[in-house]
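DM from R.C. (forwarded with permission)

"hey, sorry to bug you on a friday — could you get me a structure for this? deadline for the figure draft is monday and I only need the backbone to look sensible"
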Amino acid sequence: MSVENDAALTHLRHLKQANASVRFVSFEPLLGPIGAVNLEDIHWVIAGGESGPGARPVRGKWVRALRDQYQAQRVAFFFKQWGGRTPKAGGNTLDGRQWLEYPEVEAEQRLGGVISG
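My reply, with the result:
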């Protein structure tokens, strides 16, 4: 599920109802501040800026606010990119490091090599 701004947060209630082992939200392209997010029953969050000609910039404070919420709620956080003319134009380093976390998956699912749901 993709959420690009705070108005799209209402979509999360549908995701939380999905019968899945891993539920993730993609905040990309992140086009504005999101505000408080209840991440109960969410396992993974991906955030990133827009890329391509005319890409709108993502603000560091928007990304940091999301990251800080995920850390507090113990949800895996993956920062994909700052964006720009090309996806790799701005890199993906936030506050001196890459945030490339993945959700924990039950052992039996890892053995099968597939995340089922």
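R.C.: lifesaver. The longest helix spans residues 60-72.
me: no worries. The chain is about 20% helix and 15% strand.
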